[in-house]
TrEMBL record:
Residues in 3-dehydroquinate synthase C-terminal domain copies: 167-307
NCBIfam families listed in its UniProt record: aroB (TIGR01357)
GO cellular component entries: cytoplasm
Residues annotated as domain 3-dehydroquinate synthase N-terminal: 53-165
Catalyzed reactions: 7-phospho-2-dehydro-3-deoxy-D-arabino-heptonate = 3-dehydroquinate + phosphate
Similarity field: Belongs to the sugar phosphate cyclases superfamily. Dehydroquinate synthase family.
Entry keyword annotation includes Metal-binding: yes
This protein's name: 3-dehydroquinate synthase
Main location: cytoplasm
Amino acid sequence: MNPIIIAEQPSKSLSEALSSLTFSSLFILTDENTQEYCFPLIKDVLPESYFHFTFPAGEKHKNLETCAEIWTEMTEAGLDRKALVLNLGGGVLGDMGGFCASIYKRGIRFINLPTTLLSQVDASVGGKLGVDFEGLKNHLGVFNEPELVLICPQFLNTLPSNELRSGFAEIIKHGLIRDKEYFENLDFQNWKENDWKSLISHSVEIKKSVVQEDPKEAGLRKILNFGHTIGHALETHFLDGSNHLLHGEAIAAGMICEAWLSVEKCQMSSADLEQITQNLLEVYGKIRLNKSDFEPVLNLCLQDKKNEGKEILFSLLEKIGSCTFNVPVNKSEIAAALTYYQNL
Ligand SMILES: NC(=O)c1ccc[n+]([C@@H]2O[C@H](COP(=O)([O-])OP(=O)(O)OC[C@H]3O[C@@H](n4cnc5c(N)ncnc54)[C@H](O)[C@@H]3O)[C@@H](O)[C@H]2O)c1
Ligand SMILES: O=C(O)C(=O)C[C@@H](O)[C@H](O)[C@H](O)COP(=O)(O)O
Ligand SMILES: [Zn+2]
């Protein structure tokens, strides 16, 4: 895996990184918010000339239409294969910018400067890149490693608190799948009081250790997807409505449902289920689910990338801190998990 650096200040570390790499031109990608809040923190150390493209923020824009705009900009800027892309943003921007770089002229290099908690603890690491397609999460994509990931917690100073909370869900996931003590030491009651810097470095270690063992998700890496079969289905189902969910909010609900399935299918204890449910509800509350939401959500689960043939395969917990994968679950069991959530 290429270097992942956690640094106090973005400017000094970026300046060092840029001088250690050779490139013909630099293409900086921002969304409308990272352009406003994050770009000013790095602009002083940029080379005299560079290209810069900004697109509208949010999951709704993580699609091929935005990619086409990025590729057009890259082409008009005359980027050759020695060009370098700098992804300055959250998970949407990192997934899409890395994907665009990986496809352009069959692949140019990119570095990630993640600016949200979610992208610092999860999305910027591990080379899963892609965009949504036909209403399906990350349906088109590739695995490809960034040259470098530079994580600067200072960017979080301007991050809205709902986005911070969204990133916290992936931290909770890391504890649930790999490290009971980590999970138990998280502050759920006063979640804003968590020591983000130390959580970022521990979460990155957990994610790195899994990805290094199974970079292309042949098996073990599926544990990083705990909460995501149902979570992605919920995220997609609510994407266009007024009650749309952030990625971490959807994954938090997905983790409750999948913790319930873990009791049914993997003999996780009901004490663990209670603890997980209580902790997650404390931070995220409950999303409103109607019976009419069930069928579309179940159908979306059929499209999950972990599935094989007609089998829906889940990553589920054996206990807090330990996760297994490739567990077949049928539609009525998923409906029962949604009902558990609905009745809380
Ligand atoms: N590739 C992976 O392994 C992986 C892992 C987890 C999630 N993801 C993907 O990541 C995406 C979610 O990422 P996200 O939560 O970072 O969302 P995001 O990229 O949409 O960023 C969230 C919001 O915060 C704004 N923002 C970003 N940095 C800011 C800052 N420092 N100050 C103020 N505003 C800022 C953005 O403009 C956006 O409005 C989803 O599409 C999800 O599928 C990918
Ligand atoms: O890195 C991984 O592997 C993950 O599954 C991390 C997830 O948090 C992330 O949301 C990822 O993008 C989901 O991937 P997908 O294969 O389910 O689209
Ligand atoms: Zn995720």
